[in-house]
């Protein structure tokens, strides 16, 4: 099977880590029978400055018609609002209907306080519909934004969260070391204040997750109000397996969870739609370390693996995860965000060697 | 001076901690020249079940016309949406125009990783305007909520945040031990996605905080996108002094910050308006420990002190803070949330003794 993969480095360290993602895919053992074609694509702040658009139509159409998946690096935002500029990744998620943002947050197994959770973030609506207006009043400007929650999007995000919980359970059943006893999905919302919008998310997610295929497989459901979820995330992170949340809460929770494992540089994500996935490291463009060659490539390598999982190449994904974990378990070649002194290149080589 | 204080225990452990708040006010040394009149008031889920309203008009009117301040315990929310019920504290904040929610999060000075920050949360708008609608579509229900951000509310919340930063700086200048070098206000928003609403908050807050009285006193301004703020909160909490945020982010950040000091049972808040303040522990009604007599009274005692601060009784407030800190520094009589075995009553007595 040949997979066509779009490569969208974007800005900042995106340009330093996306090539690492390409290299690990190319280095996968031939025995897996996987080949890759790569297509370089543009998006981001630099692209905006060159072309006047942050997400060129060509990028969208090539992804739609020619690609099986993609790797997206990061984009810089201008420091003040710039007319016509808006985040290309937010737009891509909507244009390609990549309705789920999946963010596994996991320590190595031997960590003193092991954590192993996945945050499943709705990726198309909530405040990210970006419908905003501003009016002038005698007391000054008043701006409003729409938070939109639909039954349809809530149901499908909860369903994929349930599926991920089942898949994780199957991997555990196959003997993988684990801190969890059974599959658990925690629904996060703020329905004590937003009874209609978050109330709809809550009720719909509950309904989807009580479907027989989840209930029969023992998937447990729990709820947490978002503020209390953040509190619990830090007090007892080991208690969580799969967390499902509307877009904005998911954005916040996944950065919070990343803090628990020591560095955003470790945390991958995948933007998942029907038969398509974009891997995306969670760390952003990191202008402070850009060009120094010290960005942690692990979030991108894991994002490449996560993309492969959602393209049904779980064996190939497992190889990458294992090579990354071996590097981390040994702990000798680590990038500066993890307290080490290794360069991006050294970390990549160490991981390729373990593949 | 006689202060009239409304007491609104609400539900759950609210009934166990608010009496402690009353007792510490009554126990303040006579030399301070402060007297208190207390007025018992109702609100909450039990009140709703008795009277059909969660916030009786009488409670609002007595607070408005007879009181200088109040202590609010906690309210339980029904587990599923109940027609006509909505959170009385959210309503009170709006009805009394208590525009700032101030939440100091602080370890004892001798903590291995000392933290000393205040989260200043806008308290009247954002998604808390609770303007929601739901419609049926061929794809199912779609619900929308309004997020409203005004220049007026953003300006006054940033201004009070600046004032709090100055006040903290003055206390440090007077010789209090501190982990901070100078006053810093961190503006939190998500203007990379919400360019109009959060963009307005950001620009307005910046403007308010660059006023000469802040700039001349050396108040520094920093910005953090809310997801990255949560990340930083956990990675380098010692870096933050005053954090100012729109309502919902402030709600989430203050619970997150509470996790850093070990227990929500330690964290006070004050809902502050012009010449009026309601002290409110951050912990909620905690049905799991209700009636056991083991609720931590410290959040309420500190909330009483915080209320006094905003009623310009800083000396009295300082006495309460010192008594609480002495109890915590000694660490002998601690409630179970802090790993101790003391009852609410034992903790209260220990603190009263130190007053
Ligand atoms: C850059 C920003 C628009 C984006 C988001 O909010 O989704 C980022 O925080 C993320 O989590 O991918
Ligand atoms: C109970 C709830 C409505 C409230 C809020 O969201 O403001 C609480 O979380 C708080 O922080 O006081």
UniProtKB/TrEMBL annotation, chains A, B:
Pfam families: Iso_dh
Keyword Magnesium: yes
Keyword list, A-Z: Magnesium
Domain (Isopropylmalate dehydrogenase-like): residue spans on this chain: 4-351
InterPro entries xref list: IsoCit/isopropylmalate_DH_CS (IPR019818), IsoPropMal-DH-like_dom (IPR024084)
Similarity field: Belongs to the isocitrate and isopropylmalate dehydrogenases family.
Protein name: Isopropylmalate dehydrogenase-like domain-containing protein
Organism from which the protein derives: Humicola insolens (Soft-rot fungus)
Organism classification: Eukaryota, Fungi, Dikarya, Ascomycota, Pezizomycotina
């Amino acid at each position: 099977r040949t997979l066509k993969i779009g490569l969208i480095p974007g800005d900042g360290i995106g340009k330093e880590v996306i090539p690492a993602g390409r290299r690990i895919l190319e280095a996968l053992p031939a025995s897996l029978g996987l080949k890759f074609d790569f297509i370089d694509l543009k998006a981001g702040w630099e692209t905006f400055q060159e072309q006047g658009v942050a997400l060129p139509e060509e990028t969208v159409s090539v992804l739609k018609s020619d690609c099986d998946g993609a790797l997206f690096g990061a984009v810089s935002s201008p420091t003040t609002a710039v007319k016509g500029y808006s985040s290309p990744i937010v737009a891509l998620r909507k244009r390609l209907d990549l309705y789920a943002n999946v963010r596994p947050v996991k320590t190595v197994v031997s960590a003193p306080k092991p954590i192993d959770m996945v945050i499943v973030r709705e990726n198309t609506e909530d405040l990210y519909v970006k419908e905003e207006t501003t009016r002038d009043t005698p007391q000054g400007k008043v701006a409003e934004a729409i938070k939109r929650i639909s039954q349809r999007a809530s149901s499908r995000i909860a369903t994929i969260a349930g599926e991920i919980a089942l898949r994780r359970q199957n991997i555990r059943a196959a003997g993988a070391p684990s801190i969890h006893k059974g599959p658990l999905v925690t629904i996060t919302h703020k329905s004590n204040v937003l009874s209609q919008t978050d109330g709809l998310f809550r009720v719909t997610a509950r309904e989807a997750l009580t479907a027989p295929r989840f209930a029969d497989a023992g998937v447990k459901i729990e709820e947490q109000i978002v503020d209390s979820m953040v509190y619990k995330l830090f007090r007892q992170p080991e208690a969580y397996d799969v967390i499902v949340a509307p877009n904005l809460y998911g954005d916040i929770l996944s950065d919070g969870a990343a803090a628990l494992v020591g560095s955003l540089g470790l945390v991958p994500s995948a933007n998942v739609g029907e038969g398509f996935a974009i891997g995306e490291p969670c760390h952003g463009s990191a202008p402070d370390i850009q060009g120094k060659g010290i960005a942690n490539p692990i979030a991108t390598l894991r994002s490449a693996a996560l993309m492969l999982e959602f393209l049904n190449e779980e064996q190939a994904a497992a190889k990458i995860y294992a090579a990354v974990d071996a590097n981390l378990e040994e702990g000798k070649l680590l990038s500066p965000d993890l307290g080490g002194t290794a360069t991006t290149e050294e970390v990549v080589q160490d991981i390729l060697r373990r593949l």
